[in-house]
Amino acid sequence: MSDRYEVLILEAATNDVAKASLIVDIARDAIEAAQRAFTEFHSKNGGSPEHAHWDWTKKFQLTVDYELTYKMLGIECGGQVQGLMLIAVGKDCKIPSQKGKNLVYVDYLSAAPWNSKATTATPKYKLVGKVLLQAAVELSEDEGFRGRIGLHSLPQSETWYTNIGMTDLGKDTAYLNLKYFEMTPEQASAFQKG
Amino acid sequence: MKMKVTKEWLLKNANRDQDLEVTAGFLVDEKLDAVYGRNKKEQEDQKEDIESRLTALAQLINIRRRIQGWTMEQLADKADVDLQDVVCLEKGIPVHLSVRTIHKLSGVLDLPHSGLLRLSGATVQRKDDFIEHALRFVARSQKETKTTRQEIKVFEEYVKFLAEEQGK
Questions:
Q1: Which of A17, A49, A126 shows the shortest C-beta gap to B7?
Q2: Is A92 helix (H, G, I), strand (E, B) or coil?
Q3: Which of B10, B117, B137, B139 is 20 to 30 A removed from A5 (C-alpha atoms)?
Q4: Which pTM was predicted?
Q5: Domains in chain B, please, with CATH?
């Protein structure tokens, strides 16, 4: 069953605040509708962000087959899914000082293509990805992991993860050389404060 | 869960990082294909492993609770967890449990914390004889209204195994 939380995102053109819902354990039909809309947008508008070929319905299957580990979260605004995130609960920390601790691993995260500058010159909403990442930190706190999260960044996002203070653990050869980042409890606290 | 997203937080982030994308994950779906491209037998084995873990967890909690002479409701009260979580756990129904819930239950029931975490699926499974031990425990313990001496013996042996696992 899905849980909804009221959150805020910004209209990209005006910086006006837009009320949105964060949906935890988003339902299959919402994912399927979102995937159809993402695919349609890509086919009409072109653009080729690195993650354009992701199939969120396939990722959703992980939450069914490994229900205790995976969760899918989405942000909905204006009746449409504006961004999605798949997380895995309880992976091991890699930062030496956090050895033996668990974290929430962000398996996949992206905004809808109409919110991405890689796809359109006029994005509709912004900060969707950042609010989703904030949700990952909150979930980590709920799990008793004190805000620890980890993720493999797509190349265009590396600077942002560095800017928000996450620890860069370098390129992961087991993961197509994507850089692996982790957030400690102290970094999570600083991120939440902004 | 609480979400602390304020207008100020948004605007501060928007002004600082307006041209940066926030994305994460494997570039293509190859990782998923690797997971789902496994042959059918491997997929079936994986499902059986999950069932074995959940059944062992259900049996473990059920027996310890009955040894204590508690109802499910009393266990939920003592551990300060949702009754629904206890009911699902004892019925082996997959339910997302927080680490905190497992921690509370292991404390009240005096069962090894990390063992319960592994059985619940909250921590990543290593490939070892963990599942085999879980299966053996399920196969040897019996569900009866009153716990039998044999059932307690099998239960204690399995708790000992979980405690030794924790020490590894």
A1: A17
A2: strand
A3: B117
A4: 0.64
A5: 29-167 (1.10.260.40)
Name the token pair of A36: 């159809």
Q: Which of A191, A131, A136 is nearest to A161 (CA)?
A: A191
Could A68 and B6 be called an inter-chain contact, meaning their C-beta atoms sit closer than 8 Å?
no
Hey, are the CB atoms on A110 and B23 less than 8 Å from each other? yes
How far B131 CA lies from chain A's nearest CA (Å)? 16
Spatial distance between the Cα atoms of A120 and A112, rounded to a whole number of angstroms:
11
> Cβ contacts of residue A111 below 8 Å, gap of 6+?
A82, A83, A125, A128, A129, B21, B22, B23
pLDDT in tens, B122-164: 665 555 677 777 777 776 765 545 567 777 788 888 888 888 8
> For chain A, what are the domain ranges?
3-193
A68 and B122 within 8 Å at the Cβ level: the answer is yes
Instruction: For chain B, give the mean pLDDT.
Output: 76
A3-193 is classed CATH 3.50.50.60: no
The structure tokens listed for B128 are 């070892």
The long-range contacts involving B150-157, CB below 8 angstroms and separated by at least 24 positions, are B151/B63, B152/B63, B152/B67, B155/B60, B155/B63, B155/B64, B155/B67
